[in-house]
């Protein structure tokens, strides 16, 4: 059974603008090899009508966090602790029946692979219509009219004809558009996009991103955008959360984090990203090593085994003491503010020009 507990001393949301508040979220999986700490003490806020970008390597806890918000974790093997409040509604202690009412109506998700998210046995139109009928008590005709309207809104040509097509009859870009239409059928207040453009070519990717921004402006939806692509997030997000080993290591406005990153992991992500205006013969600087096992995460700072700057910190703080992440613009790192600025200006910034 899932263990659901509410942390009594979790900090309150930062202000009235906070539409989604996550506080001290911990998500653990029971496996044959032991307990996997997939998310370990994560806190963040999302404002209404704004986009929060979440970046990090595979296994950093991005998708697990957002599946937990929706209550889509495995109830037999998962322990969830902490606080998730959506527009005043507590989700961690909510029943499955309560979450079913919220999913689709108040919060929805665009999955990374529409081929696995869409059922091959039902038409696209039916898969759009049924949730609308369930949540709104609409008739079949009303649901079809709404579905055709949404298919047209997301740019699918001849929506009335495509309503009766099956997912395999859609191209990859069209399937992703249909997933967006499905997610927006009931005008959700929160939309979670889990790497929605990863499998698409660059042209279709740009179209999907522009579509999401237009729909957000029209509906005022709050968006959590999960990706490993910093180029994509720079054009999509208002705020940015950098995750590593189930924890947030840096956060701030997308402009601040990408222009003046404060954490060695953020430096590594930016240094390993190719630039369109860069020298094609210039070698990228990869982050050494591999992400840690979440079955047995390292002590202290989780990034210290891969960090090139841990020797700059006096004593053994990096290996023994877990750095905290303050509210607002912050990075969870033991380097002093002066050290971070000096390292960034002298060593990191020249690589990013």
What order do the helices and strands come in, and which of them pair?
Elements: E1 3-5, E2 18-31, E3 34-47, E4 51-55, H1 62-69, E5 78-86, E6 89-90, H2 96-102, E7 107-110, H3 114-117, H4 124-136, H5 140-153, H6 159-162, H7 172-183, E8 190-194, H8 202-219, E9 222-227, H9 230-236, E10 239-244, E11 247-253, H10 254-259, H11 264-271, H12 317-320, E12 330-331, H13 337-352
Parallel strand pairs: 1-5, 4-9, 4-10, 7-8, 8-9
Antiparallel strand pairs: 2-3, 2-5, 5-6, 10-11, 11-12
Helix pairs in contact: 4-5, 5-7, 7-8
Summarize it.
The protein has 353 residues and is an alpha/beta fold. The chain has 13 helices and 12 strands.
Secondary-structure element series: EEEEHEEHEHHHHHEHEHEEHHHEH
Q: Strand content of the residues, in percent?
A: 15-25%
Total of DSSP H or I helical runs spanning 4+ residues = 13
Decide which structural class fits the backbone.
alpha/beta
**Helix fraction bin:** 25-40%
Rg, Å, rounded: 21 Å
- What characteristic shape results from the CA principal axes? globular
What is the first-to-last residue Cα distance? 52 Å
Mean pLDDT: 87
Q: Mind summarizing the main beta sheet?
A: 7 strands, mixed
Name the poorly predicted regions: 1-16
Strand arrangement within the widest β-sheet reads 7-8-9-4-10-11-12
Number of strands: 12
Membrane topology: Peripheral membrane protein
Domain ABC transporter: 22-270
Family: Belongs to the ABC transporter superfamily.
GO molecular function: ATP binding; ATP hydrolysis activity
């Amino acid at each position: 059974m899932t263990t659901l507990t509410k942390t009594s001393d979790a900090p309150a949301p930062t202000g009235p603008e906070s539409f989604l508040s996550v506080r001290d979220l911990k998500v653990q999986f029971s496996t044959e090899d032991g307990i996997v700490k997939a998310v370990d003490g994560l806190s963040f806020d999302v404002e209404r009508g704004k986009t929060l970008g979440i970046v990090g390597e595979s296994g950093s806890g991005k998708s697990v966090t957002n599946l937990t918000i929706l209550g889509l974790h495995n109830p037999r093997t998962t322990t969830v602790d902490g606080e998730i409040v959506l527009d005043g509604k507590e989700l961690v202690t909510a029943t499955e029946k309560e979450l079913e009412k919220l999913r689709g109506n108040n919060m929805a998700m665009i999955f990374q692979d529409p081929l696995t998210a869409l059922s091959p046995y039902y038409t696209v139109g039916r898969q759009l219509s049924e949730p609308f009928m369930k949540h709104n008590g609409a008739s079949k005709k009303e649901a079809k009219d709404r579905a055709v309207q949404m298919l047209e809104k997301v740019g699918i040509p001849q929506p009335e004809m495509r309503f009766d097509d099956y997912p395999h009859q859609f191209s990859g870009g069209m399937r992703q558009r249909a997933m967006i239409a499905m997610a927006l059928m009931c005008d959700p207040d929160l939309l979670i996009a889990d790497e929605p453009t990863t499998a698409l070519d660059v042209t279709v990717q740009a179209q999907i991103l522009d579509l999401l921004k237009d729909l957000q402006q029209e509906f005022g939806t709050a968006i959590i955008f999960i990706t490993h692509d910093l180029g994509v997030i720079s054009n999509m997000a208002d705020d940015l959360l950098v995750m590593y080993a189930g924890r947030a290591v840096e956060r701030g406005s997308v402009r601040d984090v990408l222009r003046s990153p404060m954490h060695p992991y953020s430096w590594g992500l930016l240094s390993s990203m190719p630039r369109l205006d860069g020298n094609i013969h210039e070698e990228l600087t990869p982050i050494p090593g591999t992400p840690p096992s979440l079955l047995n995460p390292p002590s202290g700072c989780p990034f210290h085994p891969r960090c090139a700057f841990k020797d700059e910190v006096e004593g053994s703080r990096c290996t023994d003491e877990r750095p905290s992440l303050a509210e607002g613009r912050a990075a969870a790192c033991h380097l002093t503010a002066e050290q971070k600025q000096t390292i960034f200006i002298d060593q990191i910034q020249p690589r990013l020009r």
